TrEMBL record:
The record marks 74 as: Lowers pKa of active site Tyr. Pfam families: Aldo_ket_red (PF00248). The active site is at 49 (proton donor). GO terms for molecular function: oxidoreductase activity, acting on the CH-OH group of donors, NAD or NADP as acceptor. Belongs to the aldo/keto reductase family. CDD domains: AKR_AKR5F1. InterPro entries: AKR (IPR020471), Aldo/ket_reductase_CS (IPR018170), NAD(P)_OxRdtase_dom_sf (IPR036812), NADP_OxRdtase_dom (IPR023210). This is 2,5-diketo-D-gluconic acid reductase. Substrate binds at residue 107. Keywords: NADP, Oxidoreductase. Residues 25-257 form the NADP-dependent oxidoreductase domain.
Length: 281
């Protein structure tokens, strides 16, 4: 399995399995189990997904040694702040049924981010977290966090797909040695991504699916991917992206699809920020 090396030397699988919007506990557990059996070793969840326990059950059921699995989870806004972050982290440990987390992320750039980061730095120093990072941080917020704290985030997980390619943002991350990680690699099917003529033509050329082409395009850009599916055959297919290579022409053609805008929301929209604050679990 291909890995990337984070800025603290920790090795992270380049392809993982995400569980966002897999709300049914039984379905989530089975999907994670199928992913682990298919060879995935990175599982990405979050407290706000409300399925950490199902993920933990699947990991235990798999029988795979804990040290072979890379677990990512995230701190939600309601738990931002030094004391609350410490409690939320412990709750995630309990739900996941593990004694350490491989990668712990601040889920959204709101609330007491700095109190949360201080708590995470301490948990990192204690060995309870192998790497700490952020999610959904725009370049300005990321650089501000870096400038005022001791530990540089190892990862920034952001919306990244053919229609929102994060080229400029990734340049900033590279400058500060922060690994970019894609959420929503398939744009949740928006813009008819699986029927896009360009992507279909490239997929046909390589005798691969559009999904595999998208994941390989991200992989060749050095971006960690965490595709989600509840269908076993697609879970297996999404991991099978290392036996072909996109040409420079392919990569440049896909680059033309970039709109440089989110297909979902803006973290600078006051109404969206207010809505996020209201999400409790």
């Amino acid at each position: 399995m291909q890995h990337v090396t984070l800025n603290n030397g920790v090795k992270m699988p380049a392809v993982g399995f995400g569980v966002y919007q897999i709300d049914d506990a039984t379905q989530c557990e089975q999907s994670v189990y199928d992913a682990l059996m298919a060879g995935y070793r990175l599982i990405d969840t979050a407290a706000a997904y409300r399925n950490e326990e199902a993920v933990g059950n699947a990991i235990r059921r798999s029988g795979i040694p804990r040290e072979e699995i890379f677990i990512t989870t995230k701190l939600w806004i309601q738990d931002a702040g030094y004391e609350k972050a410490k409690k939320a982290f412990q709750k995630s440990l309990t739900q996941l049924q593990v004694d350490y987390i491989d990668l712990y992320l601040i889920h959204q750039p709101f609330g007491d981010v700095y109190g949360s980061w201080r708590a995470m730095e301490e948990l990192y120093d204690e060995g309870k977290i192998k790497a700490i990072g952020v999610s959904n941080f725009y370049p300005d917020r990321l650089v501000d966090l870096i400038m005022h704290n001791r530990i540089v985030p190892a990862v920034n997980q952001v919306e990244t797909h053919p229609f929102c390619q994060q080229v400029e943002s990734n340049d900033v991350m590279k400058e500060h040695d922060v690994q970019i990680m894609s959420w929503g690699p398939f744009a949740e099917g928006k813009n008819n991504i699986f029927e896009n003529e360009l992507l279909v033509s490239i997929a046909e050329k390589h005798q691969k699916s559009v999904a595999q082409v998208i994941l390989r395009w991200l992989n060749q850009r050095g971006i960690v991917v965490i595709p989600k599916s509840v269908h076993k055959e697609r879970i297996i297919e999404n991991a099978d992206i290392m036996d072909f290579e996109l040409s420079h022409e392919d990569m440049q053609s896909i680059a033309t699809l970039d709109t440089k805008e989110s297909l979902f929301f803006s973290h600078r929209d006051p109404n969206f920020i207010k809505m996020l604050q209201q999400i409790k679990f």
